Structure prediction request, 275 residues.
Amino acid sequence: MKTKTLLIAAAALAVGVISSQAQVYSQNVVGYMNTTIPANGFQIIGSQLIGGSDVNATNGDINATLLTGLVSSPNDPPSSSSNSVVYVWNGSGYAKYFYFNQADATTWQGSPYPAGWYTDAGISANVYLSQGKSAFIQNHSGSPMTVTVVGTVFQGTNVSTINPGYNLVNLQAPVSTNLVVAGYGLPGNLTSSPLDPPDQAHNDTLYAWSGSGYAKFYFFNQADATTWEGTPSPAGFYADNGAPMPSSLYPTASQGFFLYHIGSPVSWTNSFSVQ
Prediction:
């Protein structure tokens, strides 16, 4: 019973070793987040501060929210240079964009262009990371880089959708906590089953980035967890050997993860206020 070991991920991006730190600072409702990405490393950066290119600065446009601390080069093609790279999950694969500061974008394009994210053909990214969404950032250089995201701290109630299949998400509030905690954890109406052993066909599954792959955990509601474990157990994510997801793998502020969802879309209602 429950004898399988943890698996390394499905829907995996071929990536190298990663270590990261995230810090959150806030005064009133304005804040910033620092995430350090090692040389030639990857990190999942989530959208938890509100910003953007629209009038209200809320649309999550990565050309407005992901611009600080990144590495740029005017070399062509950018795929063979040191430009930072963002991988945006579209539900079945990744769209890939390269960062250019204003000077390098102008040199590369041959006419004045703004700082931002571009395809390797020179087309500006049309990507919006709304609250609760995440993307991979690659440090494509030989030195660590610290990416700083500045914006308004999320407050109040926000509702987003968990779609069937793989979702690259993060907690909407800038916290690190149990992923099923009331208030700002994941929705309690995720798909659950008491079957032993659990599998992705019957339980919603979380893939936590561990440094060189993904650790895999299955969602159980309280009733199914109690049946499966044979003793009263709380709702949460569990390894297939019955061990609960360790707090050491809870995502830090701004760090994302994959959630594989079964069935129809579910609403994720999230509340947070600055104390």
User: Anything to note?
Assistant: The chain has two domains: 22-153, 157-270. Residues 1-21, 23-28 have pLDDT under 50 and may be disordered. The first helix runs from residue 62 to 65. Residues 58 and 189 are 28 Å apart (CA to CA).
